[in-house]
Amino acid sequence: MEKNKNKNINPQSYYTIQYWMINELGLKGLELNIYAIIYGFSRDHSGVFMGSRNYLATFTNSTKAGVDKALKGLLKKNLLEKKEYINRGIKYCIYVAKEVANLVSYQSTQLSGVANSVSQGSQLSCPNNIEDNIEDNTLSLEVKHFGLYGNVILNDELYDRLKIESEEYADEYINRLDSHIEMHQLHKQYSAYAPNQFFIKIFDMLRRDGHVEV
Predict the structure, then answer these.
(1) CA distances (Å), origin 152, targets 6, 32, 116, 119
(2) pLDDT in tens, 67-111
(3) Engineered SS bond to 211: which of 59, 102, 169, 202, CB 3.0-4.6 Å?
(4) To the nearest 10°, the Cα dihedral for 45, 46, 52, 56?
(5) By the 8 A CB rule, do 55 and 165 touch?
(6) pLDDT (tens digit, 9 = 90+) per residue, 181-202?
């Protein structure tokens, strides 16, 4: 099967593989890479990975079939926890990586609470909300105004991920939201939005209309 050739990813993006993932968990290959990406979101139980197989395939230079196999393997090894929820009739999956130090004490109720907040459209509680950059500096990146009227606020990492998920339609849907805010004078409502909330809003619009592969 041909590998995903979408190259719209920041060349400075990275994820960190720590030695205990190899030594203690015995991971290797694609399972190791995917675990490291998801771990970057969910360490200290402070966030979740809410992304598509297409994103993981692109970032690991693999295929969606390979990603599926790796995710199933990690779930079987009890190294990931998967949660499904419904938002506006669409099923979403989120993943949390279990740290080696917390394999026994991890409380799934923490994940349940996050899933409920996401299904209601709330902001994800995640210090590193972009899978690309696993360190805690993504939210400190410079934000930029997108769209004709500049009402959509994102940083480069968030914009890159939207382009990865839907190269053809990302800019169009950014402009749709931007125009919607301007036409309906919703500036006050959206002024409280953080960049990752704009990302989630646009991502949901793309997925709703079938422009994001799940």
Answers:
(1) 24, 35, 25, 22
(2) 999 999 999 999 998 887 766 566 677 888 876 545 433 333 333
(3) 169
(4) -70
(5) yes
(6) 998 899 999 988 888 889 988 9
